[in-house]
What we know:
- The protein is mainly α and 300 residues long.
- 77% of the residues lie in helices and 0% in strands.
- The protein is built from 17 helices and no strands.
- Helix 6 packs antiparallel against helix 7 (115-127) and helix 14 runs antiparallel to helix 15 (251-263).
- The protein is elongated, with a radius of gyration of 25 Å.
Amino acid sequence: MPNTHNPFEEASPEAHRHKGDTLLNEGHYEDAITEYDNALSVNPNCAKTYNSRGIAKRTLGQYFEAIEDFDEAIDLDYNFAEAYYNRGIAKGMLEHPGDAIGDFDMAISCKEDYAEAYYNRGIANRKMGARSEAISDFSEAIRLKSDYAEAYYSRGSAKRDAGEYFPAISDFNKAIRLNPNYAEAYYSRGSAKGNLRHPKESISDFNKVLELKPGYVDAYYNRGLAYQSLGELETAISDFDKAINLKSDYARAYYNRGINQKALGNTKEAKADLEQALQLANQQREGLLAEQAKDGLIDL
């Protein structure tokens, strides 16, 4: 019997999808999309392929196109938890957390132990100002995944928003134990210690942040505030210098540098900084800061 196999026969849709998945995992998103396109041209009824192509498009910032793919995946498989989840992420990236919550709800209803869906619903709830709901979601994510460093960090951030500084610090501690290089957790723990009026302890955390991420502008600014509260004004000015070098429109850094220059008797430098702070505050519509800058300019 003759061999009828054609070595030039087109790859199957499954082969294209698997190749697309490999490219997606390797970060070759456009090439992955091409493979998913090829798979769908042969089999347009594969929900997994639409979902994967949506992930690639979302990663490239093509959020509306990604949502269209997740819609297709859901139309083909109404109980596709990951497609709801990924659509929720895309809506969140478009700054529509309220719409994202509905998708995370559906993802959880399809997959009750979906820790990532609880976590991201918590992120969306926090953005919507629903702090208690956010904390509840982060807690459920932690219950389902006990080593979820990001969930501990986010729950701590929500608690800090509520003025619960000690519970927040406990969560940041746990996040850091799980991920010793978690710069954001050190930063937030340092900020919470600053809220509790313990600047020396907060400086230690800000130092660690800057060791991990030397360009972390807010760490320089808040370390400057800590030094300022300790009366170490020249050291504070040095940190405000660094913050301004990294972010030239940092109105609060100009303001606080100006206040310190004024306290040190450096009238010319203080006037220049406070005038710049006033100009930036007006541009950025920060009315309270503008008033503070005006008050600081008195007698200069």
